[in-house]
Amino acid sequence: MEKLKQSILELITDTSTNLPPDVRRAVNAAKVQEDLGTRAALSLSTIAQNVVMAEENVSPICQDTGMPTFEVKTPVGVNQLIIKKAIKEMIAEATRTGKLRSNSVDSLTGANTGDNLGPGTPVIHFEQWEEDEIEIKLILKGGGCENKNIQYSLPCELEGLGKVGRNLDGIRKCILHAVYQAQGQGCSAGFIGVGIGGDRTSGYALAKHQLFRKVDDVNPIPELAELESYIMETANQLGIGTMGFGGNATLLGCKVGVENRLPASFFVSVAYNCWAFRRQGVRLNAETGEILRYLYKDEEVKMDLTSVVAAEEKEERREVVLQAPISEEQIRSLKVGDVVIINGEMHTGRDALHSYLMENDCPVDLNGGIIYHCGPVMLKDEAGQWHVKAAGPTTSIREEPYQGDIIKKFGIRAVIGKGGMGAKTLKALGEHGAVYLNAIGGAAQYYAECLEKVEGVDFMEFGIPEAMWHLRVKGFAAIVTMDSHGNSLHADVEKTSFEKLAQFAAPVFK
Ligand SMILES: O=C(O)C[C@H](O)C(=O)O
Ligand code: SF4
């Protein structure tokens, strides 16, 4: 098995940096569905550009390279321990070279292991089969979309949809609700895997397993094939759109699997995957470990990079250049829908930093400053200088308990993230003169290019993703989605999508 390690490293690198053709096709199709010049269409253009950059730079499509989850099938007699060891070594190697972010965190101490290894990481499932070759499949599913997974225990009652029975129509309601509750926070437009039945654990495993199906396959069970196409049709009428900006493309794929259940239980488990749907697989020669072929690479699909900005829209859209420190007056002039271009300094901060700042001082002056909800992939060169390898936004709503107080305490004028924030932050934006800016989730290469220099770092003890990076940026574009006048695009889209969801309460399947 002299080629085994090399093959595994290639698989990990390809999965993290090169979006598979079926996913590319789905993203391209979404772009066609969106109206020219809308925020959703512009976001899809950025996403397409980002996919191309990731492939060219051989760098992560998204900075959150997720929970590496392997499904391995081996012929009888192959030593699975050797494969496990090779996977672990190559996960550490891919982390060292910036193809993966160090993503394994001690749940009790918060310490990052730094190499993506630790209890429970990576996840590896082995199975034996009758074939002669080894098959290794890998999915890198990020934390933001993982947080939007949801499990329903039937019968139940769902907001807007009413009673949910233990039948196909009940399942239909659960899936629609799952898409609705994710809003844009899992970086829509997304893909869902659904597991019907099992217990709580195997139900979720089945749901995640569905994500290994090709986007364009047809379910062999006729009722489920019908359900899948119903969901594709209907979920895209919810109007959530790319990044939750509103629009026609909300769901790019729906795959449903079924397993037996216990008489007392009826679970519907949904695994939500962002547009950055990174999964790949290989067949290996069982003697040498050499790659014989890839499983999701049957054709080459180029990203659609055609510009979607309609001329008249371009004139209407206001573009404002912001340079930190930002004045209150400038912030008050911004309204939802404005595009801002940021130059100057910004500071990353996410969960660990926000909780720290509630009780402590900040090592830098944040007055008039910009906080970026981001956990980047960073590499240090031989001279000791840090470089940004991938740096898209993280889900902002996690900071909701802290953000308003932190804005107040430190005089922050702009918060950049994705997915929007809640009522408490909106109130603070109005009271203190600040804005929330939505960057395109997953566009980690696109934003890394705007981050010109790492000026410094604090709190390295929080680990690379959670540290406070001080960055010099140029031409960083984001959209005002919550302003200082009480407007929130996120609240609006949530409200209208709920009204649409409620229109699907009447039974469809017997
Ligand atoms: O951890 C991150 O960088 C992003 C995360 O996947 C998210 O979607 O919030
Ligand atoms: S930031 Fe968005 S694209 Fe990246 S892993 Fe999280 S949900 Fe997926």
UniProtKB/TrEMBL annotation:
It comes from the Bacteria. GO terms for biological process: generation of precursor metabolites and energy. The keyword Iron applies. It catalyses: (S)-malate = fumarate + H2O. Residues 295-492 form the Fe-S hydro-lyase tartrate dehydratase beta-type catalytic domain. Homodimer. Belongs to the class-I fumarase family. This is Fumarate hydratase class I. It comes from Brevibacillus centrosporus. The lineage of its organism: Bacteria, Bacillati, Bacillota, Bacilli, Bacillales.
